[in-house]
Write a structure and sequence with these properties.
442 residues; alpha+beta; Ubiquitin-like (UB roll); Creatine Kinase, Chain A, domain 2; eleven-stranded mixed β-sheet; 13 helices
């Protein structure tokens, strides 16, 4: 579907005999929320929005100010391919408004739109190409793998090939162009890569992809998870995020005269990501489990540096290919696919723009394997580490003026409070490791 306005939506609903329209939005943590309306309510939804109680939505309103309005974005209209063709069901992403029609400051989609508007004021369009990794398991109770395949393995080692195939067809029916899919490094781990797109569209696509991967898996009797590190001792799932800025239709990161083919804008943007990396980590890796992934030895970034070939670096700049100026970009490797994409994309863009605004200098790339460096070597090169736990990450974020300004006071406070509660609950637990390690000897 390619609806551009309200009239297009009305026509599609009538012509396709749509039975229900699901209105989608996310809470502060990036959990998808939805309620359905019948076509008879569509005119009100499109012109005035649909009211709902926001008091039970994580990070939304308090009970005494709970009235919210969900206003659908007509350009996001798509049919859900897993619903019956004879009675199709559509969905639209919504902006959340206050009763007076003003944007709700607790809406993550609005937060991303706001920083995108700031970039647009400077003439920039923000493009993203996230790579979401995930696992297929036999069920949602235990991480029982379906295969022992590895990177780029083909069937029969790759048991998930047919699942990915069905998922890609479903994504393409929803207007999402796919570039690659393959088995990843770990057992039963997979990746489906979407073609790059503008920031807001890509955040919507990430939410759509997470739903689609899970629904297709469920329909096949298996369970798909974007949990960052479900199994000890093998690679976790990341969401390496390729990003660039365009200006006047040209890639603002590209400079043919530079030895790295990076413009001053591109260098300062990367420098912004590096300087503010510790501050934005809690947003990009927001769960206790995220920090089981961000450890040395499993291809996840731990140290704050950039490189072209070195995949142990936090930021990688893929090597320039002649005639591919449009593809000049940086790859931020810390986020995982369980983050809230609206907030994660917002803080990454904000960090990069801060570097551009203030002309941050870009340090020299580090092409050596940082995992094998001694602590003194890293200190000599000025290489710092990402936070090692959710607690450390949240306290870094709590001090960040960049994140506070980007998220706004409402979401900033709600997010920090939620994550401090999560950490407190986690640290009070007694794990199997502790029982097995300490009970026999203490």
């Amino acid at each position: 579907m390619n609806c551009q306005n309200i009239d297009d939506v009305f026509k599609a609903v009538k012509d396709l005999n749509v039975s229900f329209i699901q209105l989608w939005f996310t809470d502060v943590l990036g959990m998808l929320k939805s309620f359905s309306i019948r076509p008879s309510e569509l005119e009100e939804a499109m012109t005035e929005g649909m009211g709902f109680d926001g008091s039970s939505i994580e990070g939304f309103a308090r009970i005494e100010e709970s009235d919210m309005i969900a206003k659908p974005d007509p350009s996001s209209f798509q049919l859900l391919p897993w619903r019956p063709e004879e009675q199709p069901v559509a969905r639209m992403f919504c902006d959340i408004l206050q009763p007076d029609g003003s944007p709700y400051l607790g809406d993550p989609r609005y937060i991303l739109k706001r920083i995108l508007a700031k970039a647009a004021e400077k003439g920039f369009t923000y493009y993203l190409g996230p790579e979401l990794e995930f696992f297929y398991f036999a069920n949602n109770k235990t991480p029982e793998v379906l295969d022992k395949g590895g990177y780029f393995d083909a069937p029969p080692l790759d048991v998930g090939n047919e699942l990915r195939r069905q998922t890609i067809f479903a994504l393409e029916k929803q207007g999402i162009r796919i570039e690659y899919s393959h088995h990843e490094v770990a057992d039963s781990q997979h990746e489906i890569d979407m073609r790059y797109d503008e920031g807001l569209k890509m955040a919507d696509k990430c939410m759509t992809m997470r739903v689609t991967v899970k629904v297709v898996a469920m329909m096949n009797g298996v369970y798909a998870t974007f949990m960052p590190k479900p199994i000890f001792g093998i690679n976790g799932s990341g969401m390496h995020t390729h990003q660039s800025l365009f200006k006047d239709g040209k890639n603002a990161f590209y400079d043919p005269k530079d030895s790295y083919h990076l413009s001053a804008t591109g260098k300062s943007y990367i420098a912004g990501l590096l300087r503010h990396a510790r501050e934005i980590t809690a947003i990009c890796s927001q769960w206790v489990n995220s920090y089981k992934r961000l450890v040395p030895g499993y291809e996840a970034p731990v140290y704050i540096s950039w490189a072209r070939r070195n995949r142990s670096a936090l930021v990688r700049v893929p090597m320039y290919k002649p005639g591919k100026e449009v593809a000049t970009r940086c790859e931020y490797r810390a986020p995982d696919p369980a983050c809230n994409p609206y907030l994660a994309f917002a803080v990454m863009l904000a960090a990069g723009l801060k570097g551009v605004e203030n002309n941050y200098p870009l340090p020299e790339p580090v092409e050596e394997d940082i995992y094998h460096m001694s602590e003194s070597e890293r200190a000599r090169l000025g290489i710092h580490s990402l936070p090692g736990s959710l607690h450390e990450a949240v306290e870094e974020t709590a001090k960040s003026s960049v994140v506070r300004e980007t998220l706004g006071e409402h979401i900033f406070t709600k997010f920090i409070d939620n994550k401090r509660i999560e950490w407190d609950r986690y640290r009070m637990q007694v794990s199997n490791y502790e029982i097995e390690r300490y009970l026999p000897i203490l």
